[in-house]
Every structure is written in structure tokens, then in C-alpha cells.
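ARCHIVE CARD
Drawer: 12
Card no.: 0347
Subject: one protein chain, sequence and derived structure
Cross-reference: see card 0346
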Amino acid sequence: MQTVQWRVSGMDCNTCAIHIHKYLEKQGMQNVKVNFATGDVIFDAATDFEKSRLTHGIADLGYTVINDENAVSQKRSEAKRNAFLSTHLQRFLFCLPFTALLMLHMIPGLHIHWLMNHWVQLALATPVYIVGMSFFGRSALKSIRNRMPNMNVLIAIGSTAAFFYSLYGSLTGQAHQFMFYETAATIITLVFMGNYLEDAAIASTQRELKKLVKSQKVMATMIAFDDKYQEQLFQVENTQLRVGDLILLKSGDQVPIDSKILWGDVQVNEAIITGESIPVHKKSKDSLIGGSIIAEGTAKAQVTAVGDDTILSGIITMVTKAQGEKPPMQQLADKISAVFIPIVLIIATVALIANWIILKDFTPALLRSIAVLVIACPCAMGLATPAAIAVGLSRAAKTGILFRNATSLELFKNIKKAVFDKTGTLTTGKFELSNYKIFESETETHFKNLVYSIEKHSNHPIAKCITEAWKRKDFIRWKKIEEIKGLGMQAKDNEGNIYIAGSFKAAAAHTQDDTHNVYILKNQQLIGWIDVKDEIRPEAKGVIDYLHSKKIETILLSGDRYAKCKQLADTLGIDTVLAEQTPEEKLQHIEQLATNNPTIMVGDGINDAPALAKATIGISMSEASQIAVQSAQVVLMNHGLKNLPTALGLGKHTHLTIKQNLFWAFAYNIVAIPVAAFGFLTPTFGALIMGLSDVVLAINSVRLFVKKVV
């Protein structure tokens, strides 16, 4: 299977997204995500799927895949998008002069006699009607053909009824009784205006993500060598770089792509990724993230990742996928949107018949029916969640918080317990050797070589600290070596000797002293121990205090010894300590906690991965092990815990914004449709309000960019 991401144009409302979603599922595609607000369509397909068949099928539905790799299709799509009257703004500006002239005769005290001529009004209304039907009518017909009518059906029927009712009057000599050309033109023009405003508002919800996308294409200074091995510098676009290429970075440069420093010492601003503007010191062998800025210094670096493998591309893909997710609250809105259009058509028909019977006059009955068609807005229900999710995820990405899916963003609202791993989570994970002891049977040189040879096979932060301090070339090559989770590393040499570098559990049968970090055993005999020191993260205390202020219980869940865990918990004010836990025991605790109450788990190690996956929401640090990052639903990119309160706050306020948007969407339609049916709204005013209703939702969602969430 492969993940396919397309951009599809022509989606006007959530019904359009449902069309494409159902079509792709019917064609056997899996994990389909369609976001009509952004035009993104993501799905899993077999590697040999028929791309042309799917793109043609989507085209038959009335939409266009605009980033298909097929060159001919691409050119046609671009030509279609660049054609005259291809955007809502262009259509609105074209229709506006004609409609403005038609509306002049309605201004009190202003009598322009030639504008009162019904043939003149027909001439002015016809271009507007033709442009309107080329968009609304075509879209409506395709949606009806696919048995899923969209909102353009309502607009097309309403404006067509007004236009042909007026045309009937002109052709039968009864124009003074049937002249509603301005109604047809105004409906079309105002809806085009509303669609443009909606597009502009939705585009603003994507601005942070667009900044990330824009930062992906920059120029890079590439280092090459001529036939005399003389260094040559030349400028290339970063898209032309390949893994292994050498690049030169100077003060003020944007790091063009993920790389590793070979030579140099620089200060790097990683705000685009982490949200933290304070420069980070980087030296030889340190990694650089594409998109960050060299604040000071010069370095030569080697490209480590290109294309979709870069961190920035991964972030953009993750955010885009999450924006296409549909959290639980949207499911009800989708179900209602699917049957909304037929219900409105029924209500409009009933309003027409009832008003005709009551008023005994077809003209006002028709206008009320048209007003019902025009005022109804299914887009609001479909836009309520995507708009808020898009803003919430974009702000999170800007701040250095990555949500793997939209559901986790919404689930934050109910969190009752927060579980933390110790090493690398509440502490910095940057260990330093503080002490060690070697028993008489071992020489110092052999002991250090032995420990280095074992720990070099481990990714644990303590192991990395030891191997960095005792690095050597003459290491032992083991016959067999493995990591026993919750215990440590076990190795076997060619002579059959068994060595263990592990926790107190490994040495419990040989000593009562449980105060050391690593115990070294040979054939079940203790031959030494090692101590390291670790610092508490400076932000940890503030994060724990914040959680307590929100009535969230805090729990320390660690494989470390109880004494050290208890000391840390007392320092930070953590409520509960669960120490000396194996990965299996951690998983059991998290499963039990998450079953009883919504629970977050914050961790960074390999042994945390199962628990992260089992928690209501798993949260990992960006510098965590790869498996921990992949198991978590949320990744904190700021090298610490300080953005955890922001993640919680964004989750809760995004959920609140979704509720506000859905309330507005439902309340608007519940109130507006009866008001129109009883004649308190003209079709013209209804078209204006309908156009602005989506803008209200978008503006309310955009508030999340500046709203205080912590």
C-alpha cells in the first residue's frame, strides 16, 4: 500500500467532500480523508492502482485533480484554473456592474426611466444568469446526476425561478407584474461574493501551513570539487540536492534541507519547527533541520534527507493529514448535510404551495419559496469543524506541537490524568558520569572497554552517556547481544561468558545497595557499578503546577528505582509514584488508567512506546526514540515540556470553537429557513446573509490564532 495525496479543485461544501469520499471508498481506497476547505484528498491505495481511472472518475463527479503527475492533465487543469471567470472573485466582479445597474431603480427617489424597461433589465440580467448557471447550474446538474445534491442546487433553482418567471412576464406582455430580474441577478452576484469571502477566510486559516510549505524551496550553496580537488561553490535550488551532498552555511542563511554538521560551530534559530526563537548551539555531528536559520557562525554540512523524508515535509504531511480527519463531533453534521438539500427542497415546495393558498397570489409565494432556497446554507455545517481544526493545527505547528490526527486535538478537553516517564521527560536526559566502582577482579581498562562494548548497542540515554565518556576503538565483538526490556543489555562472548549491564533488578541477588544507575555482572557475579547524574527540566515544575490548577492528577511512571522517583516526585509535587516498572507493567497501568479516565502519557524511550500507543493521548518529545515518536499522537518539537500546557489549551479551545461553530450553523438554518418561509426575508437579503454565514464561522475559527489558550 502507498499513501496518495492529491489536491482537488471544485469542492464548494461538505457535500462535495462526501461525494469524493464515497467514490474513493467504493473504488477500494482505504483511510480516505477529504478536506473541502483546503482541497486536500488523502487515501491509501495499492502500489499498482489505476491513477487515470480515479482522476477520470473524480472528473465525472464534477471535480478536478490539479496535482496529478500526468503532464497533459496537469496542463489542462492549470489552463482551466487560469481561464477567464475561473474564480469566485472574477465572477463576482463581472456580475457586479450589471447587478448594480439593475438595483438602481430600487433606490427611493431615484427614477431612471430606461432602467424600468423590462427588455433592458432582461439584457442586464442575462449575462449574470449565464455566468451563474455556468458555475452553479453545472455543479447542480452533476451533483443531481450523482444522487447527492449540493448547495448549488438551491442557488440554481432559486435564481432560475426568478429569471424565467420574469421572462414569462416579458414574453406575455405582463412584465409589470412579473419583473424580478434584479432578484435573479442579485442572488447570483451576492452568492459569488459570499463564496469569495469564504475562500479568503478559509485561506487565512492555512497561512501558517503555507509558510512552512513556502520555506521548503530555497537556494543552497553547494560545495563541489574540481579535478584538482579545489573546492568550488555554486548556487542550486534545494530540490536539486541529494543525500550526501555538501553545503556551506553562513550567518543569515536558511538551512536549505536536513543535514549534519561536518565542520563548524553555529547558533541556529529553529522557531519555524519548534516555536522557540532563542538560538540553539550546534557543533560538529549535530543535526540541522531544514527551514531553520543560521543566526551566527559558519558551517559545512552534509545532506541527510531530501524530499518527503525531511522533517519539515513530515510536519507538513502530518498536519495536512490531521486537517483531513473528521473528529466525532463532525459526524453528526455530515449526516445532516447529506439529507439537508432534499429537506430544504421539500420545505421550499411546501412554502410555495402554502403561501399561494393563504395569500391567493403566486408572486409573493414564489419569492418566499426562493428566499427559503437561497437562505439555506449546508456549507456552514460542513465548514464548522474543518475551519476550527485547520486553525488549531496550524497554530500548534507554529508553536512546535504536532498532532498526528484531529481526534487527539479534540480529546484533550476531557483529560483527567497525566502520566510522565522520568528519564528524558521530566529530566533533561543529558547525563554525565558522576562516579563508578570496579571490584578487584577487574582492571579499569578492561572494565571500561567491557562496558563500552555492551552499551554501544543500546539507545538508552544513560548508555549513550557512558559510551560517549568511554569511547574507544578496541571494543569487544560479541557472539550474541540483546536488550532485555526493563532489565538491561545482555551479551555473550566467544568463550561463553555472559555479561549484563542493567538496573538494580539484574543485581538484586548480589547486593542490597540499590542507589546506583548501572550494575555490571559477569556470569552472575557483580564486577562493578556506574552512577550518572541527570538534571530536572527547568520547565517541569511549572507544567506540573499548571496541570494541578486544571484539576488533572499527575503520575510518575518509571522503570527507575523508587527512591530516585520519589525524590523527583516530591521536588516537582507529583501526586503518585509508580516506580521500577517493566514495559509490560507500564502498559498495564496505562490501560487501566485510560479505561477509567481519559489519560495522557508523556514519554520518550523505546520502552514507553507501547504505553504511548495505549494512552488516550500519547505525547512524545521530538528528540525521543523513533519508535516513541511514531507511537505518539502528539509530538512536542521544542526540546522539552513547556508546550504541553499550550497543547492542552489548544485542544480545549479548538473543541470550544467547534461547538460554537456548529451551534451557529444549526441555529442559523433553524431560524433563517422559517423566517424566509413566512415572508420576513427577501431573496436578495437572504443571499447576502447566506454568503456571510460561512464568513462568520471562518472568522470565529481564525480567532484561535490570537486567542489566549493557557
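Annotation on reverse: The first strand starts at residue 2 and ends at 9. The chain has 25 helices and 24 strands.
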